[in-house]
Amino acid sequence: MIYCGRSELSRYLGISAELDAALRFAMGLDEGKLVPGRNEVPGSEGVYANCFTYTTLPADGLLFESHLRNADLHLALSGEEMIQLARQENLKEVEARREEDYIGLSGPHEALVRLGPADALLVFPGEAHKVKCVWEAPGEVRKLVVKIPAGAAPPVSGT
Length: 159
Fold this sequence. Notes:
Elements: E1 2-5, H1 17-27, E2 37-40, E3 48-55, E4 64-66, E5 70-78, E6 81-86, E7 92-97, E8 102-106, E9 111-115, E10 119-123, E11 128-133, E12 140-149
Antiparallel strand pairs: 1-10, 2-3, 3-12, 4-8, 5-10, 5-12, 6-9, 6-11, 7-8
């Protein structure tokens, strides 16, 4: 997991071709060209970005999520949210849609990050994260999540 300023993303270039495509897309982002839903990332195989808007919610009504095959690069385009983090092995699986690369988990958080327009959070397969959480007060967030093929996650334990 990597939490940094959006201005620092270039330091992670060179790890993989897929991550490079995602980072270059994020660093050269023209928000005016984004459409709601899926946006293709040029020059990449399997990397794409989802753009959506939502209102943050109380964390206790939400599940952690984890992915099996994709890393997520979270970028808030406007607004801010809290993202809770926990080691997946300390959580309990409560739902799974493996064909959609989604596992829903419950349990306590171990760390918190604030995601605003100046921030970036990259989570890899098997790293549990609870998104859409209220930071200080409910608010609207416009967000981009770049999906990056990253191989297989470790098996879910604690189930």
